[in-house]
Design brief:
By secondary structure, the chain is an alpha+beta fold. The chain contains 28 helices and 15 strands. A hairpin with a 2-residue loop joins strand 14 and strand 15.
Length: 614
Amino acid sequence: MREEFEKLVTAGKLNKQFIEPLVKLAACGFCSHRGWGFGRITSIDTVFARFNIDFPGKSGHAMDLAFAAQSLVPIPKDHIMARKALDLDGLRQMAAVKHLELIKLVLRSFNNKASLDQIQTALVPDVIGDDWKKWWEAARNEMKRDGHFVIPAKKSEPILFQEQQTKLVDRLLADFRGAKGLKARHTAATEIVKSINDLEDKTGVAKEVVAALNAEIGTHQRTQPSTALEAIFVRDELYAAAGLPPAADELPAQAIWSQDLRLSGLLEALPATKHRKALLSFREANPDKWATVVVGSLNSAPTKLVGELAHLLIAEGQLNLLKDTVARLISQHQASSDLLLWLARERTDSYADILGPEVFRAMLTAIERDQFNEKKSNRLRDFILSDKELIVELIESADLEVIKDLTRALQLSPSFDDMDKRSLLARIVKRYPAMQSLITGEQQRQETYYLVSWTSLERRKDEYAELVQKKIPANSKEIAIARSYGDLRENHEYKAAKEMQKLLMRRKEEIETGLLRARGTDFANPRTDIVSIGTKVSVTELGSQQAEVFKIMGAWDSDPDHDIISYLTPVAQSLIGKKAGESVEFELNGLQKKFRVDTIEAVPAAPAAAPVAS
């Protein structure tokens, strides 16, 4: 093609400086454009001086040769992108059986070095499908054993391919010997532990690494205890992997824990992957006081660490200690936002007896406290907004007055902007429509209401108080206890407690609805010229001439043994408005009967509770 390009130069259609780039492009047959990506040169038109190129979404795109020379990068046929275009099935077969050959191909395509992201982008999803993580783990293990690859400790650094093979043991020891500082040596030693079974002289390698680690552990014991502890962990792992006994004179993990250290502070300085191991080490070093120290660290630890602290307590049979501590912090409004965020995320039935309206109140306090202290994290607030069920679940066991107080507290909270606050309030109103008037200040018109006696109203209020103050909390405790028994498939106590929870919550909702619509009265001085609420009605069944008496009272006053019926019953509704001497037909005990109203008089006043302001 050089001659053809030179002819174009002679004809004045092309600048001479573009000949070499165009020759390379034509020879490769593939190219890359900064905006359009990978392309395949399908033909060269020397008449109009242009390439025809297939780009993704731009098939057969015509490009001026001069522009192509300046904007395209040639891609050789052995590049991973070209190979994907020429032989995708062959690459997939290579991925299945020859991991290293495929990685070598990718690295050579990028001048023998490429980041993990570059490798993944080149192979997924065309060559490797959904099982990338599993595939890469297998390939990485093979690369570590092969002497041609250099895998850095940090994922952000490039993976290298080198033609000259280096033995695994030489590479690992070179990395360890070249590491500066105990932290870096710990990282290098960790790689040795991972590959120890692939080394011929495990004992010799372990002894060298352990000796170097021990030489520095002591100097870091007080100044960098977390680094020293990590080094002790990897040292002990080397002993175990190499089958060596620990030396008698070396510094144990207990020496770190015997110092006057703040547990949560040391743990925060460790990677999250080491938290559990460190906590188990702390427990072994402090068998008498570990639980006290762990619960004492709950309120100062970040959320993830709270989870690890809680996991250790639960695993060691200290669930009640954990719950008592969390409940105390909540009741005193001292619980941190991290502790409350952990509880909100966890909120399993194991914590049913401490989850409730006070948790939400404590959350508002914690968020406001963080703002006052200028704490930048808003994770608890963000979680409250994102979890659409949280608020309702926390307040559903509370009585209406508590829910009103919480609604007011949310309205006044400076922790949420107006839009977020409206969203949270809407969740409460959806579950408790009665809160609408409290939020808007507009009194909703009650479409229907019940007339009830003061006695029955107080009786219903007492039942409601019994539910929210005793029965529901007791049921929550039963759920938490039953949940701790383990396997839920055979846990009959748990199933029974959960069924009872449904019944209690349903009854609570029924009573709440009734109380909102109830209007108390003493039914004094009812009209007696017609049948009305609060009257005693004597009637005669015209077929049998049998006399009956009905005392028509409030919605919750039914007492058939004493002839008292609710004014909402079909019988009462048929009688109301009738005068003495009039007849009425209605169904009684399943039979259609005709009655004559004989007398109407006021029901004798009975001792009743005085109205109580609510």
